[in-house]
Amino acid sequence: MTTEIGRIPVVQPRCSTCSLGQFCLPVGIPEAELERLDALVSERRRLKKGEVLYHANDDLSAVYGIRFGSLKSCVTAPDGREQVVGFHLQGELIGLDAVADSHHPSTAIALEDSELCIARFGELETLSRQVPSLQRQLHRLMSQEIRNEHQQLLALGTMRAEERLAVFLHNLSERLSARGYAANEFVLRMSREEIGSFLGLKLETVSRLFSRFAQNGMIEIRQRHVKIIDAAALRELAGVTGIHC
């Protein structure tokens, strides 16, 4: 399958002036080369909540920088169940996991209304050969994805259920804080069922753990609105091991 993105309107995004550049492709690129990156990243795409960006097995045609919003990556298990394998936030690049064989291994779905910058991969690959700092940044981002996968496997294989949820909340807080949002108060864009799928926990277990964390005074929870009350206790339970989800 091939994802159609050719009809997306051009709205002239600029990497050189983007406030999210510190998380995305422009990191470390000399100012003189940023204009070339601006010319390459010349399209944006808007997604409604629940809309698919690309499907598993689609050809790799582009990678995407999340300008605002959030997405999830999921695969279909042999029994037909959806398995969430990642959550992607504003400023992050999505689609690099398709570089290995030029096909996306997972389906990417918007968790909320979102907007993405589009970098056609063939053009990005060509430019990266000409701009060493861009190539290093691509390698760094791909290396970070591999590291995150290793940390997730470690958590799923060795951590108790409450530790997994603590790690998830702690790292979500850290990622949001790095983007200028409040570290101790945020809205979960993913459902508890999706959190459970990602952490290898049943929905009932996730709901019970949220209630326990609230009863223990670590958090306040109202539907999807989370307020961290005792950040030190949450960090201690998490062990600050660093799953990035």
Automatic annotation (TrEMBL):
GO MF annotations in UniProt: DNA binding; DNA-binding transcription factor activity
Under CDD domains, the record lists: CAP_ED, HTH_CRP
An example of a Gene Ontology cellular component annotation for this protein is: cytosol
Classify the source by domain of life. Bacteria
Where's the Cyclic nucleotide-binding domain? 25-108
Give the record's keywords alphabetically.
DNA-binding, Transcription, Transcription regulation
- Can you give the residue ranges of the HTH crp-type domain? 159-232
Q: Does the keyword Transcription regulation apply?
A: yes
Q: What SUPFAM superfamilies does the database record attribute to this sequence? A: cAMP-binding domain-like, Winged helix' DNA-binding domain
Q: What is this protein called?
A: Fumarate and nitrate reduction regulatory protein
